[in-house]
Amino acid sequence: MAYIKIDNQAFEVDAGTSVLEAAESHGIKIPHYCYHPALDAVGSCRMCLVEIEGIPKLQASCNTPIREVPHDCRINGKYDMVVHTRSDIVKKERENILEFLLLNHPLDCPVCDQAGECLLQDYSFRYGRAHSRFEEDKRVQPNEYLGSMIVINHNRCIMCTRCIRFTRQISGTHELFVDKRGYNSKIAILEDYPLDNLLAGNVADICPLGALLDRDYIHKNRIWNLTTQSSLCTECSIGCNINIYYQGNQIFRVSPRENLKVNGYFICDIGRYGFHKYEDVERITSPLVKKNGKFSEISWEGAFKEIFDNFAKGKEKYLIAGIASPFHTNETNFMFGKLMNQILKGRTVVGILPPIEVEEDISYASGFRISRDRSPNRQGVVDFCLDLEVNILEVVRDKKIKLMVMLDDGVERRIEDSWIEIFRNLHFMVVQAYALTPLAQLAHLVLPGPAPFEREGTLTNDQGRVQWLRPSLPLKGKTRPDWEILMEVMNTVGKRELRYSGVSDVIRKMGDEFPAYTGMSFFHLGDYGLPKNGQIKDE
Amino acid sequence: MRQSDNSPMFNPVLTRFMHLDNSHTLNVYRSVGGYAALEKVLKTKTPGDVIEEIKASNLRGRGGAGFPTGIKWEFVPKDPLKPKYLISNADESEPGTFKDRLILNKAPHMMLEGMIIASYAIDCHQAFIYIREEFYQEYKTLENMVKEVYHANLLGHNILASNYQLDVVIHRGAGAYICGEETALLDSLEGRRGWPRFRPPYPAIEGYLKCPTVVQNVETLACLPEIMNRGADWFKSIGPEKGPGPKLFCLSGHINNPGVYEAPMGIPLTELIYNYGEGIRNKRKLKAVLPGGVSSVVLTADEVEGLNMDFDSLAAKRTILGSAGIIVMDDTVDMVNACLNIARFFAHESCGQCTPCREGTVWLVKILTRLIHKEGRRRDIDLLLDITENIGGLSDLSKGSFGKTICPFGEAVAWPVRSFVEKFEEEFFACISDNKTIYKAAVIS
After folding, report:
1. Which of A468, A449, A55, A446 minimizes the C-alpha distance to A288?
2. Are residues B31 and B66 in the same domain?
3. What ipTM does the predicted assembly reach?
4. Do both B229 and B99 map to the same domain?
């Protein structure tokens, strides 16, 4: 361990840590462009230069490791290294580097997407000169496509090479490189090998300026109009942490949130652009009941009465099939399990439809993985709905079950023709859905629930980590949270008086009944989630 | 390339047989005693002995940095697990320097014998010659030389019936000055862009493919055989003790007799210019001299008086010996134009990795272009000084270097441009116009 002093703070760090990392971990901010915690440090932007006592030349703090020195070389007898990040010479240096960076940088702020979250703006404001002394012509190059989704504006690029290092170290796909030399350097691709891998969207995130732009978001909005919500991606069982940027009822973009235990610093394009598929879906905003083959709206009381009529009132001997969903939260599946295994005990067979998956995981050089299981919460279903039937539809057909309650998977689910016969033979099928999916259309009663970006609850990923899913869009029309609907169903059918005040209450109850989830709460899960008690893989 | 007309006290060492026909062939080299040193080393000296001898000789690198060669070899760790590499840096690109080319053309075996001795000293069994792409003729000469040498059992297995084995590969560059910088050379040799690396770790610890690597200039290697033949004390007796030896000086510019001249280290600059070079052409007067190629601080005619050409004397005058590419300028030279020429070279050769050099060098060109068109503004002079300081630090080398760049290219730009402005102020001020319109400098391609 080395004992160092940065500005007026003295502390111990592991030898080998870079000065920049040591400073950042103690709240001392050193401006930088080319450094990124997920990538190897190169020290090429020169913005992070600091003064280190004993070395006449300013050093790039991102690339300077801290070493233990022999006792007689220590500064003031105690420090292995003394660093000044705010001395006059460092301040002057930052001004000069910024001047160089701004030399050829166009005055694009009014039309540049990065405005408001741009490091060049921030550092110019904090560390730069008020005006530039450059009076010559700037270098001008036209914009280019680097891939289907990524555009580069060469004039804005400061050659920090984060994007190139990303394609080398994280995605391992090597599409990007520097073409030409010196002043004419530019980021380039080979004509027949564009930047089209599933991690491509991340380069627009890591670009500190508005040089690399995501075509999905370009010119659509401004960061200061958008509200940020931390949440989770629901496109596969990894459960990458994301930030959702929305305004009013519309999501504008999704970007990664750091979680070193789950997704590191990145997300894949499936999750990044996935929110679009919910935008044009025709939503169900009120309970619907099918009479004479057509749906008509019904009130919630009416809907619950329909359920009561079909599940109780003399039908107590009838078996009920329950189909849970790995697309729903733990709380919803917990309530579903409660309904099936406690309230309707003895009458039920519970299962899930064949999983929505692809052939295999997609893995990248850095270890980033896209799971083959494209549902976010299979683990949750397994944990809360015990005794799952492997082939629920076969059981329904063989045992001639006539009643069914189903949590709809959503717009991802494609149904097979052989299933339609099975569903048509049911006497009463209740589906909890957010849109009239092919499955919902086969139902007799549809209960409107929230769409994925409106749900709140927890999801358990395939490593056994429980994370907090937070809503960013409001509930539509008469929709109610999924767990609340199930609570009312339980009250109706089981003649109970369950009253949970909110999702947090459900979580507490979950913890009471399932030891793996004891002690969890949104507060404890926080931004990074928690492993299930004693049951985490690869911690 | 002309030989020197030496003063009788100094017997040529490096150029002693270059006047012979076919001096580049193995036969001729052997006939003047070539490879005797190698035989002596392989048969009677251990690697440690060789390092001690070279250290004792105080040989300093002739590529530009002047680092003591023996000490550099000592840095190489004795780790048996990692292979060691030796690289001969034949990427001679410093303007005003053409001494390595002479060696490659007329006496490549001198360099090769030095390479084998050096490789033996650091326990290296794979050596490279990194030659600049433009030296095609020289590359062909080297190819033939290497063939000859393998044939004669001077390379490959069991060299001269000793147990020592060495292989040599010749690698051509692709036209970049920056690849003469040792870490950029290593990257280029590994097949990547020639972007200099951060130091530490130094190449002697982690160089080519992360293994210990020693990079030496061609001339430095060429000195090694005679040091082993005649001894460290002999070498130390030539010129100043702290930086001795016979040296190839390149004289170019406005001089009557340009060429490569071998002289002892410490020879007075005036003797080189007026005796060897036979004075300024057309009987004009000396105005300025760049002593170490274009990457050095310029000297005025006054400063040339009494100046000896060796590492320490020049460092005391706040310039560098560098690669000993002496460019002589007479009083017909427009210093602003010369400065622009130099700045254009550096802007073209900047690798673009770090900000100050990539942006700053072209800014210098644009300002200087305006100045030579007499469209300068008063603040341009201060701006030039400020920019060079921001790229390469102050020119007062006694205070250390304050460059802001990853590699010494920043200092290499800053020293000449800054010294031109400081020492020839009047010419720059004469370019200032009071005219308010600015001439738009052309974009360099």
Report:
1. A446
2. yes
3. 0.85
4. yes
φ and ψ at residue A192, rounded to 5 degrees: -100, 15
Q: What pLDDT, in 10s, does the model give residues A59-76?
A: 899 989 998 888 888 888
Task: Flag if A44 and B355 touch (Cβ within 8 Å).
Answer: yes
| Both structure tokens of B70 | 């023996």
Model confidence pLDDT, tens digit, residues A174-213: 999 999 998 899 999 999 999 999 999 999 999 999 999 9
User: Would you give the distance in Å from CA B90 to the centre of its chain?
Assistant: 10
Q: Which of B187, B345, B358, B391 to mutate to test the interface with A (most CBs of A within 10 A)?
A: B358
- Which CATH number goes with the domain that contains B371? 1.20.1440.230
Q: What is the total count of domains within chain B? A: 3
Do A525 and A466 form a contact (C-beta atoms < 8 A)? yes
B170 contacts B151 by C-beta, under 8 angstroms: no
Contacts of A107 (CB under 8 A, 6+ apart): none
Residue B33 inside a domain? The answer is yes
Could you tell me the pTM of the whole model? 0.90
Q: By residue range, what is the domain housing residue B31? A: 26-236
DSSP β-bridge partners for residue A389: A351
* A32 vs A39: CA distance, rounded Å: 13
Between CA B118 and CA B224 the distance in angstroms is: 8
Sign of CA dihedral B83, B89, B91, B95: positive
Judgement on whether residues B116 and B231 belong to the same structural domain of the protein: yes
Cβ-defined contact of B352 to A96 (cutoff 8 Å):
no
Q: How many CB pairs under 8 A join A and B?
A: 106
Strand A241-247's sheet: what is its strand order?
A227-232, A241-247, A250-256
Residue A369 host element (H or E): strand A369-370
User: How many residues appear in chain A?
Assistant: 539
